[in-house]
Amino acid sequence: MPEGKSEFDVWMKFTKMADENTVFPVLFRGAGSYRHFIPSMLNNVLTKESIITAYTPYQAEISQGVLQSIYEYQTMMCDLTGMDASNASVYDGATAAAEGIAMCRERKRKKALVSSAILPGVLKTIQTYSYGNGMEIEVIPEKDGRTDEVRLKEMLDEETACVYIQHPNYYGNLEEASVLGEAAHAAGAKFVMGVNPITLGVLKSPREYGADVAVGDAQPLEMRTSFGGPTLGFMTCIQSMMRRLPGRIVGETTDEKGNIGFCLTLQAREQHIRREKASSNICSNEALCALAASVYLVTMGNKEMKKVGVLCMSKAHYLAKELEKAGLHLENTGDFFHEFVTVSTKSSSAVLQALEAHGILGGYPLDDHRILWCCTEANSKEEMDEVVRILKEV
User: Fold this and answer.
1) Separation CA 171–CA 371 (nearest Å)
2) In this predicted structure, what is the pLDDT of residue 58?
3) Which pLDDT band, with edges at 50, 70 and 90, does 320 fall under?
4) Which domains does the chain have, with CATH numbers?
5) What pLDDT digit, counting tens, does each position of 354-363 carry?
């Protein structure tokens, strides 16, 4: 073992290592992790010692403050999604998707139809889960950047437990969610939707689309991109499926004196029973990230959530039109939220390198000529115009 170093030497060593990273002041990349404006109030709340050290209450009913914060989070997630029940969160959006599909498994229905137009990492996580829990996963082909409705109807049968789609999908396109949900229900299957919570200020809620389970990653609700984590997986569902929700659920109750209190409820799903009887082995939660999402939602309110959604959508459509003027072809043929795909005769690497030379991180390269772009309220018109100016030269 080498000898130890002083604190100053260690600090200098790690500073040099960190300096090798490129930190882009301007970025137009999403693909599952998004940069949004974070109100300063959030740091003021989350850095309090009594909060930042809180993990998960093992002597739960003693920790009334933590339980109440989780209860408020669950309530707001139900408000956002239109669902009846929420758990206290899981690790990330991919985990939530896999757990949401597992919730739908029944004795004679063990097959899930999953859209190919979802985030690739989410699909891989779903397939990993299914390997261990006995679910059969069939991937629904895409057509013109959306889930192929015709093929879905052909694939549905008596063994189908659920249909899973992402709305907006990986390419930013808005799916025909109501139509796909109706097809699933007509075959006796459940309808599971993966959603970006930022969209729910302007788009219909999953409940309005007919979803039985709504899941997603709450990273857009305050969590920084930060090398990919930590994030927060949210899970909500309709009343009839509440007992199948994995993870912790906090409920409101009263004590012997009639005072309002909070407690863990419906605990017979995993860690308190025999493992082979459990519907899930998730027994933890992302309490600090859930609190961050709650503080963000309280700070923003309904009006500001809608404003953020409108800004994301309008800025993305502005950038898409301007990029077409710069010589890129817009692949999206219908409605999209804040992400879209362009096709170029130039290679994706040439386009992105030209932007990187000016301190701009462009979209995510899907292949040699296709790029997935993203705009949020944090992107200014001046930044978008600069991208267009550079690409016109390219």
Assistant:
1) 10
2) 62
3) very high
4) 7-37+301-393 (3.90.1150.10), 42-295 (3.40.640.10)
5) 999 999 999 9
